[in-house]
Amino acid sequence: MKWQGRRKSSNVTDARRPSATGGRKVAAGGGLGLVIALVVFLLTGNPGALIGDLGTQEAILPPGNRQIEYQATQREQQLFDYASVVLADIEDTWNTILSRESINYIEPELTLYSGVVQSGCGLADSGVGPFYCPADHSIYLDLSFYDTLIDRFGAQRGDFGMAYVIAHEAGHHVQTLMGVTGQLDRLRSQVADGRLTQEAFNRYSVRFELQADYLAGVVARYMAQRGYLDPGDLEEALSAAASVGDDHIQRQTQGYVNPDSFNHGTSAQRERWFMMGYDTGDLSLWDTFNVPI
């Protein structure tokens, strides 16, 4: 992606801390250990279900630990700058598109952290993966996920996989502004009181996540139309989408696939809906809830 020398978003917060100092660790009591086990291999679209678990955890500071200014390596600073440019493109995309729909686009914050972060949805560590918190309209990202995406998930090496990740999480912000997240939260509450099975809710969750993939494709189309994409960028985004498909992750981690537990979609579905967003470049086909997926 052609990103150097272009506008950087001002909505980026640097909350990184040096991991070598011992840092803050998340107490594994309550349900957090289970939550991380379930979510660690996924792009955690909407952490609404995690608020209760994460919100009760305490940040444990080792004795004598002091806050030390984070010293980023050259590569980390490059990733920081890259993410800031990607967020700027996302802002330009949705300010343009949603204005046509008479929707005021409230720009999300992007918080880049290392190890542990306090979000509006509770305390989280990097094992949770990138996530969007609707409570504070913020995307949270540990830049080490770039290496995780490639080394652990098997995504193709290249910068545009990270752009897909950020655009996917920003897609959840668009869903929040347009009321879709609230609808999913109401369905989640039906699981808690027994009116809806977890398997049924998972099917809604898959459609919710595929919608965010579609929205990420719309952003990629915006970038392409402005000449920002390099040859191979789309392939990198599709590889990243495939690498976090439920079927791929389950085969990699447990050796078999259980479709009833899918909550993000298969690799093929995630690739397909990203490309549908890219091909349309607008919201015309974004309703994943009322069509075959």
Outline:
With 293 residues, this protein is an alpha/beta fold. It is built from ten helices and eight strands.
Textual characterization of the structure:
This protein has one domain. It is 48% helix and 10% strand. It starts with 11 loop residues before the first strand and ends in a 13-residue tail after the last helix. The strands form 3 sheets. It has a 4-stranded mixed sheet with strand order 1-4-8-7, covered by helices on one side. It is of the alpha/beta class and 293 residues long. It is globular, with a radius of gyration of 18 Å. The chain has 10 helices and 8 strands. About 16% of the residues have low confidence.
Record keyword descriptors for this entry.
293 residues, alpha/beta, four-stranded mixed β-sheet, 10 helices, 8 strands
